[in-house]
């Protein structure tokens, strides 16, 4: 064996021969049956139809996809907006802190503080406080 062949090449580790899926079973479906199969597969977290069919035939447990309501989608989008607002405020605070530490011009400092106070007031107003 060459020295080069001993190196780790990356990727998935090689499976033992007894663990490999080598047998192929061909199944034919009508279009209606196949559509129904895809609808059922869409409710679980399996990557392929083949994996889904194998799991169902062998009575393996399937993980269901979580169902989200429109209310949960709205809350999620509001949280994302709030997160971006808080992130922007944090960036402003960081910029102000850098300026405070690098300058002695207190008029600019007062303007920065006023700007941050306005940003915080707008944020609180958008949150409904």
Topology diagram in text:
Layout: H1 31-41, H2 49-57, H3 70-102, H4 106-127
Helix pairs in contact: 3-4
In short:
The protein has 4 helices and no strands. It has 129 residues and is mainly alpha-helical.
Task: Describe it.
With 129 residues, this protein is mainly alpha-helical. Helix content is 58%, strand content 0%. It has helices spanning 31-41, 49-57, 70-102, 106-127. α3 (70-102) packs antiparallel against α4 (106-127). It is elongated. The mean pLDDT is 84.
Order of helices and strands, N to C?
A: HHHH
Q: How many strand elements?
A: 0
The shape, in one word, is elongated
Regions with little confidence, pLDDT below 50 for 5+ residues: none
Share of residues in helices: 55-70%
**Portion in strands:** under 5%
Count of helix runs: 4
Roughly how many Å apart are the termini?
72 Å
C-alpha Rg (nearest Å)? 29 Å
Content-based structural category:
mainly alpha
Question: How much is the average pLDDT?
Answer: 84
What kind of sheet is the major sheet?
none
Keywords summarizing the entry:
129 residues; mainly alpha; elongated
């Amino acid at each position: 064996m060459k020295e080069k062949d001993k190196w780790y090449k990356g990727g998935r580790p090689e499976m033992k021969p007894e663990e490999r899926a080598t047998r192929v079973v061909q199944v034919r479906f009508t279009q209606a049956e196949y559509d129904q199969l895809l609808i059922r597969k869409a409710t679980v977290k399996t990557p392929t139809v083949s994996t889904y069919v194998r799991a169902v035939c062998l009575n393996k447990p399937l993980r269901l996809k979580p169902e989200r309501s429109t209310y949960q989608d709205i809350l999620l989008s509001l949280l994302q907006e709030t997160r971006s607002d808080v992130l922007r405020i944090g960036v402003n605070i960081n910029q102000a802190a850098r300026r405070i530490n690098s300058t002695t011009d207190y008029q600019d400092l007062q303007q920065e503080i006023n700007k941050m106070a306005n940003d915080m007031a707008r944020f609180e107003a958008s949150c409904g406080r």
